[in-house]
Structure of Helix-hairpin-helix motif-containing protein:
Amino acid sequence: MNYLKKSTFYLSKSQRFSLYLLFILILLFEIFQNFFIQKADFELTQADRILLESYKNQLDTKKSSFASYSKNNFHDSIKAFNPNDYSVEDWMKIGFSERQAEVILKYKGIVGGEFTSKEQIKKCYVIDAEKYKELEPYLLLPEKSESTFENKYSEQKIAYRNFDPNDLPQQGWEKLGFSPKQAEVIMKYKQIVGGKFTSKEQIRKCFVINDEKYNEMQTYILLPEKSKQDLKQDKYQAKKTTYSKFNPNNYSAKDWQQIGFSGKQAESILKYKNILGGQFKSKDQLKKCYMISDEKFTEMEPYIDLPETVAYKIESPKIEYKEVKETSKTVLKEKFNPNNLDHQGWINLGFTEKQANTIMNFKRSLGGSFKDAKILKRCYAISEEKFKELEPYLVFE
């Protein structure tokens, strides 16, 4: 019995040797086969090399001819135009992506509903220096807006007192020498920065407040020069970083963090890149990102490996993005005064929690009430479709 048990599992010396030999032969065969296939795949004949070089030259020629054709085609097709008349489709026809075109129209709303100068177009962050240079000869607008501080509003002598800009309604900014349109832009800008100014630095960055006006006001503004968040950001970016040449279009959130940005800043830079159409086309666009301070950009600039000029394609790639929509269509039966609605009232009209908060903050920023339907329409949380739905039922008493 023991003998049978032993013979079932026992291999003699010669059998073990045969198995080892077989295993070694199989291994050698696999190595040889692998090596042979790779060599066969990657070793090109002289004729193949010539053919490949010829194909590469043809491809380079096509690329350069496409770039020159796109540019020539652009100049042949475009005519002088007023950017105030342009829709999303019109901006897309001259080389912008759908997302970029929508940003330009939102920017137009922020500056008061119309562009008054070429200077305003140039300041839009989705229009880089190269693209602006291309468009500038065709823009039917003056170089600078007439509504600057050299007009009747700036001629007023202001008797300043200490003030908190967060307490000022639109009329309060007008009393400080701003035009109604400029005051409206400042109120919208306040919404964009989170509904509250936290530092003088934020006030200075508002594009309707020029350096001269800011210097005139700054000693009376009851805010710190920089907020805790600004100081934290500066401290984070001030850390010594060892740079090497890099293309910002290839950087992930982790890569941005490795050169001195926080996780939140890195995510904001990537979102900004997506708004631009998925890539930075020039150093100038990167410089405009509000998460990158002037000092940090100066520090990074020598290492940015990015072509200064990029040919614009007529068909730009579409960038997917999420848009907050009203939760449902509301059936209205009677007229109502929007000034009487509380937070829950707006939710009952089909708005989300976040949208209702934005509307209430916007109302507070106007001094506590909507004067008319036009002002209500300017609130970012109310889409064009939703406003059309509400408009017949609005009353202001």
Residues 46-77 form the longest helix (32 residues). Residues 250 and 263 are 17 Å apart (CA to CA). The chain has five domains: 15-44, 78-138, 152-226, 229-303, 338-393.
